[in-house]
Amino acid sequence: MLRSTWTTGRRGALLGASAAVVCATLTACGNTGDGYVAVGPPRPSATAARPTGSVTLVPLDGTPKSPTASGTSSRPGTTPAPTSTPDSSAPPAPPGPSSPPAAKPGGSKATSRSSAPTPAPTTAPRTPAPPTPAALTWAAPTRKAADRRWCEDVTLAFHNSGGTPVRSGTVTLGTHIIGSLGIDWATIKSTEQLPTPIAANTRENGTWTVCVDAWRVPLGMHIETRDVSVTWQ
User: Would you say 25 and 42 are in contact if contact means Cβ atoms under 8 Å apart?
Assistant: First the structure.
């Protein structure tokens, strides 16, 4: 024999309805003529009272639902409150630091430096140095006897190592009169002209026939031109 159990409140109504369904099923299954199962109408539930505290609904499948934040459970069929959305009328937030634009595929990479070429340093033209003055040197005289004993041919080799040509000048030659015993009796000077012009850094030879008075060179004596002095411009 089945026994009906009544529970007040919303939970009692649900449990009562479930029991009635079970009982009706058992009656249909057990209606074989051997016995009867009497199922009476459910007794009206007592007056429902509003809960005063936190209520937890327990569904028929036994899965509990968590209460809402306000302490009351959400009811089936109710629409949840919409979530708050940003107010479109509020001023937009200030923009953050902008990032450099990304380079396009295949494009050239932008550089922060200027692509203008750096001008090459200019050098001032050098002022040519002034030419150095003429510097004339000469070797020892080369002597050659002439057909007369009081004359001889004298050759001088000149070298201008300066930067300016020798344009004019004179050569002073000192001719010695030598006796038969080698005694140097006297020195006679004569002046000759330089073989000008003598260009810068060039060499030039000059040859002169030097003679003294015949009476100064008696028989058995001869002359030797040894001394040389030069002036030039």
Answer: no
